[in-house]
Amino acid sequence: MSGYTFRLKAPSAERLDLSALTPDNLAKLGNHEISSLKVGMGRTALAVGEAFDVSGSAGDTVTIDNAASGAILDFVGAGLTAGTIRVNGNVGAYAGRKMTGGKIEINGNAGNFLASCLSGGLIHVKGNAGNNLGGILAGDRFGMIGGIVVVEGNVGARTGDKMRRGTVIVRGKTGEAAGSRMIGGTIWAEGGFGPVPGLMMRRGTLIGSGVERLLPTFVDCGNHDLVIVRVLNRYLKKTLGDLAPKPMPLFVQRIAGDMSTIGKGEILLPAT
Amino acid sequence: MSIHNTIPGKDINGVFVDDTFAEAFGMSGTGIIITADTLKWAKIAAVTATGFGTSVIGCGAECGIDRELTPDETPDGRPGVRILIFGFSPDAIIGQVKNRIGQCVLTSPGSACYAGLEAPQQIGLGKAPRFFGDGFQTAKKLGDSRYWRVPVMDGEFVIEESTGVTTDAVGGGNLLIVGKDRAGLLETTEAAVDAIAKIDDVITPFPGGIVRSGSKVGTKYKGMFASTNDAFCPTLRGATKSELTPGTLAVLEIVIDGLTSARVAEAMRVGLKAVTDVGAKKGVTRVTAGNYGGKLGQHHYHLKDLI
Questions:
Q1: B142 contact residues in A (CB cutoff 8 A)
Q2: Which helix H or strand E contains A15, and what residues bound it?
Q3: Could you please report the per-residue DSSP string of A124-190?
Q4: Considering only CA atoms, which of B234, B229, B237, B236 is closest in space to residue B211?
Q5: Does the structure's ipTM exceed the value 0.95?
Q6: pLDDT per residue as tens digits for the range B165-192
Q7: Domain span at residue B210?
Q8: For residue B77, what is the nearest residue in chain A, using CA coordinates?
Q9: B78, B136, B149 member nearest A228 (Cβ)
Q10: Which residue, of A86, B53, B138, B190, has the fewest CB within 10 Å?
Q11: Domain with B252 in it: what CATH number?
């Protein structure tokens, strides 16, 4: 497991776009080319060598170190196809955007639009994540369309906005309107959902320990022993191991919605 | 050595094993996992779905239960059964899967249905049955698998969208077991079927795994492809060109289909061993195999190589 390490020299005044710092991209470049890469998004257009101390050699892992002030590090792992990006600290917005494979480990917090349009791979955030996790930007057709995101803390509003496929696991609680405009996929909030989850959702599954406030356009379908919950429990345990959420009780309350759309989505809560 | 100085072969524990070979054919095969709340109901669904699946000629497919699965082995953690379905081609299997799953598994209480074979080539499993949901069905994609949830009167029927299909399968591995005591012969053949059942990836598609009406290619009648194997009919021993020695009372056949040639060979090996281990005491006199002179089937299993 060799690879480059980028140690943030000092808190930067300008936001940095780190989408170029992926293992496969760096493998094509020499040390001088890497140091010369422009990552600054401000007027000064900082180069990698000005913002980071670079060490190591090409490999399947990229480490971003000393990133306590990393909230200005945007697009970390954007477009990642394989390998691992490990961040010791925080990241800014758009981490893992349009990622198709590999793994991002963030030992800190993530900003807004984490996993936006993610289609494959795994993102693991030890801290909290911001708004619009797995969401869309202007011009995107769908939000997250595959892959898995695990956030150990809480997440902001509109998690999974226009999400179509994939799985989001939140150990803590979601902000308001998780699963808004959702088209498919699964959001599992072990700490429960904030207000109005599933706003305008068409399909998809929201699983949680509770809901702060339900929309009136969600309807109770009763308590059921759903085979798909068993399948989901086993899939996540097999895929994620210790990162998997605690299995859902087999008997769950199914709440269907959003009936203001086609109403084929659902919120699953422990049966009462 | 020979039992009447005309048939080459070898005596094993008092059972004569002919120096001949089983001739088998390349087929396509698929695997499907059926689960239910209890093993009893998984087996009921599996037995129903694999019914009328003895011969691809008359039934459209050759089907059977490969093995029972523990809850740890199934995608939903419930007890289950893996069935295998064989046909002439992947396209020929598609219709069989659609009808058998749609009529026999979808309808069975508490059942669910998953891919039972990993292979690059896929065929539809839930692609057709999902439409029973009349628009209320929903899909859940987990990893590379898509599961359909079809609302039914006892909850939801969960079925994976597709399963693997292989064109490396083999159909028609066989053993012909000859005896002078019908009850002992049946008991011995049952023991061989039980031994074969322990081999994964193979089925014995005939009733109880045993065929009493072995066939030959061709007939005197128009419109038929096969007819009774008169050379192995004991009651015709004096009236036709018989393959049977004096004293033979009955012949039973085990037909074996498998997902690979190696599995079929292994199944024949354990079946043959089961026969030669106990057969002599039960009135079994001989084991032979069916072939067409080696000109029709791609796979030849020589009994002397399986001893």
A1: 167, 231-232, 235
A2: none
A3: EESS-B-SSTT---TT-S-S-EEEEEEESS-B-SSTTTT--EEEEEESS---TTTTTT--S-EEEET
A4: B229
A5: no
A6: 999 999 999 999 999 999 999 999 999 9
A7: 9-24+169-306
A8: A230
A9: B149
A10: B190
A11: 3.30.70.520
